[in-house]
Amino acid sequence: MSLPTQVKIVEVGPRDGLQNEKETISAEVKIELVDRLTNAGFVNIEAASFVSPKWVPQMATSAEVMAGIQRKAGVIYSALTPNMKGFEAALAAGADEVVIFSSASEAFAQKNINCSIAESIERFRDVAAAANQHKIRLRGSISCAFGCPYQGEVTPEQVADVVKLMRDLGCDEIDIADTIGVGTPCHVQAVMQRVAQEFPIAQISGHFHDTYGQALANIYASMEVGVSIFHSSVAGLGGCPYAKGATGNVATEDVLFMMQGLGVHTGIDLNQVVDAGQFISQHLGRKAVSRAGNAIAAKRLA
Ligand code: HMG
Ligand code: MG
Questions:
Q1: Which residue of 11, 49, 52 sits with most ligand 1 atoms within 8 Å of its CB, as the best mutation to test the pocket?
Q2: Could you list the active site residues?
Q3: Ligand nearest to the CA of 141
Q4: Which CATH class is domain 8-301?
Q5: For the chain, which residues score pLDDT lower than 50?
């Protein structure tokens, strides 16, 4: 199959990227990050997470962030909502899309959301109905689709089972997430092809972490089998608090550089993303993890 001519890049840095930071980042800095990303041209930004602040303290300012950002018409600002309490908060904050999240691995579901996969789906039923009632987009995210830090192997069949459950809840989009970055291209294609039997491939996204350096290869492999939505994180920010050793999502700058080279349209201004990556990295006091971002920033100084 030939590559898609255009892809949607969902920027997850303000949520997935920052959630694991130990030092509290002010709402002002998060707002500036989201605004910079909006200006760079993303059509979907994961900006907030209405989860328990005891579980993920860094996301406790999510309402403030959502209230402070400058929204651009047509841009979807998403928020994680593990239950109705999260949904009510997301609704009040004006989220355009709510994200329910479970796992292809039982062990990870227990660690991350303190319940089984089946129990999580039961909790999401109310969230899905409320999203439908309020005409808010619903996205389902499936962690550990290629391997689990606690249980090890995860089969394509196990991923497909959760895809079916999320499809039946009425999800508009479903993320196949490599939380610990262990997927490799042929494995990724096998999973994507299996889940595409259950849910339209045009509404499936690839959420890759670069822990083992496979993320760009996995994105390319996914495009070869028809996936055209990808998640990435500016400056390669990230890691999951419930997956020890998990590094960041694939860096947005690296994905955009690859897409540019392939002639795949994204609608996003790479230079502005590089600026946003340098901004947040300076704030965090460390170098960005994006190779392309750092190379472009260095070239500017030369
Ligand atoms: P629990 O302790 O089983 O729930 O947690 P609970 O209902 O017993 O509530 C405990 C306390 O949390 C109560 O407060 C609730 O009110 C409060 P208390 O009475 O003790 O003061 N609470 C909430 N507060 C704010 N917002 C809420 C909320 N819900 C309950 N929505 C729960 C269950 C699901 C809440 C918890 O496990 C949780 O918040 N987990 C979230 C973990 C998380 O955010 N992980 C990271 C996101 S997933 C991820 O990063 C992976 C992904 O990016 C894909 C990938 O990268 O692979 C999606
Ligand atoms: Mg992630």
A1: 52
A2: 240
A3: 1
A4: alpha beta
A5: none
